[in-house]
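Q: What residues go here?
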């Protein structure tokens, strides 16, 4: 991950699970020199974030103008509310946004055109698609710039998301496809771990031992991939001795046509993303 840069004042409106994960990365990196203001509807949720260094946490239940106050003072505004709530929030903050404030969407399925239609075509908008490993600083975040966002705007927002992982810049039409790989991808990995754990239990291991073996095998394999920078296929070949046990197991998995299974799975996810974008 690149060295953190000093970021200007940031507002996160709706610091739920994803907004909270981004906030964790920002605080841990020390990059949020300009300070971060976060809003949540409930007093309890706001209180959970109130003790973070450099963070001002606002409960909308106590401060109804919290969203507009935060947006007016920020150079970067992250929209972290549920997709259905985005239009109303944009209409609320539109009058107070400064012309060059960069508005960043965390909302799945809400297009840049939707933002521009409410905020105006000249407001810089960037659409983002982070994933849940942001909580531990290992996110993959897709970023798509709107027409009014400059290269400097994109660099600034990229630096923000690099505090909690890596960034891939894509055109907006690829954001939904990216979500089927990195956005949904952690669930695919967790499913594979579940199934390997069940296989271990089926071979007579206790649940605790089975989980330990399956989980740490995935964690260790990912760490090895990260440390070596090798192609996954090459690392697989190194484990797969000719005529050995692993070769026999891999043959069974390949006979199951995993390539087709993953293709169908990601196609299904992409179709659903398009349905959600269309409001169905």
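A:
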């Amino acid at each position: 991950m690149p060295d953190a840069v000093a970021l200007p004042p940031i507002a996160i409106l709706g610091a739920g699970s994803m907004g909270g994960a981004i906030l964790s990365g920002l605080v841990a990196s020390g990059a949020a020199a300009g300070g971060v203001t976060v809003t949540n509807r409930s007093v309890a949720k706001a209180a959970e974030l109130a003790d973070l260094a450099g963070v001002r946490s606002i409960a909308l239940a106590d401060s109804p103008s919290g969203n507009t106050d935060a947006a007016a003072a920020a150079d970067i505004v992250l929209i972290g509310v549920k997709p259905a709530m985005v239009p109303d929030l944009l209409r609320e903050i539109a009058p107070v946004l400064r012309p060059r404030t960069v508005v960043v969407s965390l909302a799945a399925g809400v297009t840049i055109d939707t933002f521009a239609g409410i905020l105006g075509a000249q407001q810089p908008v960037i659409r983002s698609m982070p994933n849940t490993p942001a909580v531990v600083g290992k996110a993959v975040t897709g970023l798509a710039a709107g027409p009014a966002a400059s290269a400097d705007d994109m660099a600034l927002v990229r630096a923000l998301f690099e505090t909690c992982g890596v960034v891939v810049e894509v055109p907006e039409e690829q954001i939904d496809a990216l979500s089927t790989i990195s956005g949904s991808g952690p669930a695919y990995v967790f499913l594979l771990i579940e199934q390997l754990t069940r296989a271990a239990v089926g071979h007579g291991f206790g649940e605790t031992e089975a989980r330990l073996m399956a989980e740490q095998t995935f964690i260790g394999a990912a760490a090895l991939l990260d440390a070596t920078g090798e192609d996954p296929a090459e690392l697989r070949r190194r484990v797969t001795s000719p005529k050995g046990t692993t070769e026999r197991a891999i043959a069974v998995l390949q006979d199951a046509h995993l390539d087709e299974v993953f293709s169908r799975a990601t196609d299904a996810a992409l179709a659903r993303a398009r349905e959600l974008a269309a409001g169905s």
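A: Context that may help when evaluating the design: The mean pLDDT is 93. Strands lie at 10-13, 36-40, 55-59, 76-79, 102-105, 125-129, 139-145, 165-169.
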